[in-house]
Design a protein that fits this description.
The structure is a homodimer. By secondary structure, chain A is an alpha+beta fold. The first copy, chain A, folds into 3 domains: about 1-35, no CATH class; about 45-65 and about 295-465, v583 domain like (v583 fold, Alpha-Beta Complex), CATH 3.90.1700; about 75-285, Enterococcus faecalis V583 domain (Enterococcus faecalis V583 fold, Alpha-Beta Complex), CATH 3.90.1710.10. Helices cover about 40% and strands about 20% of the residues of chain A. Chain A contains 17 helices and 18 strands. In chain A, strand 10 (about 305-310) and strand 11 form a beta hairpin. In chain A, helix 3 packs across helix 17 (about 450-465). The first copy, chain A, starts with a helix and ends with a helix. The interface between A and B is medium-sized, with 34 and 34 residues.
Chain lengths: ~475, ~475
Amino acid sequence: MKDLFKEDLQVINVGLTSFGEVVAREGGTVLQIEWSPPGQGNREIGKKLAKLVNLPEVEKANQRAFKNYLAAQPILESVGAAKAVIPNMGERMILHAGPPVSWEEMCGPMRGAITGAILLEGWAKDLDEASELAASNEITYEPNHHHAAVGPMSGVTSPSMPVWIVSNSTHGNKAFCSLNEGLGKVLRMGANSPDVIDRLKWMGKDLAPILKSTLDRLGGLELKPMIAQALQMGDEVHNRNAAASSLLLKRLVPVMVKTDIPLDQIAAAVEFIAGNDHFFLNISMAACKAMLDAAHNQPGSSMVTAMARNGVEFGIRVSGTGDSWFTAPAPKVNGLYFPGYSIEDAAPDLGDSAITETAGLGGFAMATAPAIVKFVGGSVQDAFAYTREMTQITLGLNNALSLPVMDFSGTPAGIDIRKSVDTGIAPIINTGIAHHKAGIGQIGAGITRAPMACLAQAVVALADRLH
Amino acid sequence: MKDLFKEDLQVINVGLTSFGEVVAREGGTVLQIEWSPPGQGNREIGKKLAKLVNLPEVEKANQRAFKNYLAAQPILESVGAAKAVIPNMGERMILHAGPPVSWEEMCGPMRGAITGAILLEGWAKDLDEASELAASNEITYEPNHHHAAVGPMSGVTSPSMPVWIVSNSTHGNKAFCSLNEGLGKVLRMGANSPDVIDRLKWMGKDLAPILKSTLDRLGGLELKPMIAQALQMGDEVHNRNAAASSLLLKRLVPVMVKTDIPLDQIAAAVEFIAGNDHFFLNISMAACKAMLDAAHNQPGSSMVTAMARNGVEFGIRVSGTGDSWFTAPAPKVNGLYFPGYSIEDAAPDLGDSAITETAGLGGFAMATAPAIVKFVGGSVQDAFAYTREMTQITLGLNNALSLPVMDFSGTPAGIDIRKSVDTGIAPIINTGIAHHKAGIGQIGAGITRAPMACLAQAVVALADRLH
């Protein structure tokens, strides 16, 4: 023991850095291990977590859930009107992003999108009348997620809107998502001016039938190989879909020009798709929803199967806790803002698009999309670090979705609420940012995280179910 | 001095590693500096090189050459028949890849491509007659590079073939390249069966007019932003052109469907382009040729303006030495071979496509295309290392062509023969590999290097010109 003190100090310091700093100041060598108490030091949560860790029931359920997620084969099957294809879609029902929220509580962009959708449906003659109707009891609001659907940003899906139909050929479940309108002044961001409504009308009347006819002739498109290819081309298929949108167009166009639809309509459709680098986003989201629904409802599983925001609350769902939502206030995003805007103008985090991160894409696959840091902020090294960090809170790697720059390792997928609460590492999310007022639209993009409170609640609920 | 020997040995070892190994074995710390004598130890070359290093005349000429290369703006202008648009194209002239070579010396795939081209032109009725004609004095053979043109692999360009016309809007020079036929059994790889010839006939009769009509309506396409975008999407635009080909199609199709060409012809053209991930290669090559010709003929400049192989010899041209070729035997490529083939079956290195590396793309930009190692071999770390290594032998970075994964640094460009001969680092090249016999086609792909002998000869010639 005496000999030890004659040697130079070599110390491993766990947790609070200040202890290590003292040693370093005195000339010792310090290896700092990052650690913080599980559940952010909350004793109750820590105890529930301890019950779940290494529990065979949870481990087995997670294996089943993760296996189903990996085995899912999302196929882009067709396009149809929401009211015709989405299960339990009511006549005067409007679906929205995130966990349940009432009209009174909704954020500006969601209200803007809903009044726009009411105009699109022809339920009101102007925005004032639409707002009045929206606030009445005549409209039913439900989350997309309650209907096997997802929607970016406000996520507003009204009965006449065309939606992508993605089927999981392995397990037979389907998932739905609206069609992408482009960037800027668009309904999903809360804009509802006449040009926005006109574009949506054209999408329903012209674009959707062309896409349906093309997909019918193609007999569907396998989405996993397309997403895998896009990952090799610098997309993370959440905020960067440039490659995937091109790959999709390349598959659609040769068939599209052979349909018997008038050429000027085809030309307009091609121009629209070719001009929208985010066109694939909504397909990516539906594919992720289809893969994750296959992993949902495994009793005992601690795997997250949905992360979604309604602009007020951030909510998650977990495979082993059924249809419960675990919510916390949605954060504002400290991202890159378009000129003239700042975080002061931002709505809190919004949209179902975090379904991509839940499936191991988006922020989780950011290493493969270094070019995205010009859009969402941060450095290229950050992008690598996010992907590496997410391997600490996930059940495994999805080798069908490999990241060349990480030596072709699979993307980290299957968020385990136990690992997240234990390490204090919250899931990372790339996201667009909408203006907090209705009618304006997108004002930036950035990187945010799921609130730890959602994951901690889920740990408690799962532990309570199992004991 | 005595004190020094009491301390632990800490040694910097330059050159031969064996000296350092002795120190390391005795417990000392060794920092190994890689170094070898300039000109591979050849005293004559070393002396010539010494004359050129830091010579103001060379430095200034290089600044001019590199500035021109950076300032060049290649525009995809149109498509036309070789005989109508390529300067000084003779009536019975066939252009080929690499430095000059006679029919007697040509490798198998080049002979195969030439006899195929003779059939295409209708100068002979079968392959035997074509071979006889090819060996007679009736056909003139000249390098593409003598006509502001380039061609991949055998590079065979005959009078009726359609070629891309790329103009450099900054300096007014033009460059030309044939249209890409796809992979596998293709003329450029030496195949010449009836299906190969039929495809070429269709390309001249149907495809070329559609492309011309589309480009006319577009008023040309700026290629540098398109290449820059493709680099952000994992292409190095030599052996990987998946993104660039998609981006091109996305620009062409919306206009193509508006031309008054019959829809079934357009459908066939779209299908052909959409099915060929290498379609952009020949455009990339013409763009590089246009940029490098702008840097050519700067008296005193040691910048390489062409690297090209004819399957027998590897040749380079240097800005300050005019139209001289500096040649050495073309190496065989130790790459990844298709099943059933090996290096025994390979023709030596072939094609003008190393013009992409000469312009800082291809192997020089490999860091941005990690997925390519599955095609050309090596590891992802190798891909990064090649790009970093090439910064040691180049005049600068091309910031218009940035590599996200290298923190958005520009790609290393402007090979300086002095730096290459001084460091012993030869330019890296990604390449396809053809079978050594005529008529077979591609059998693999790999990574190779320019022979140092070419660069050393150029150093001697430039030094002799300047003294």
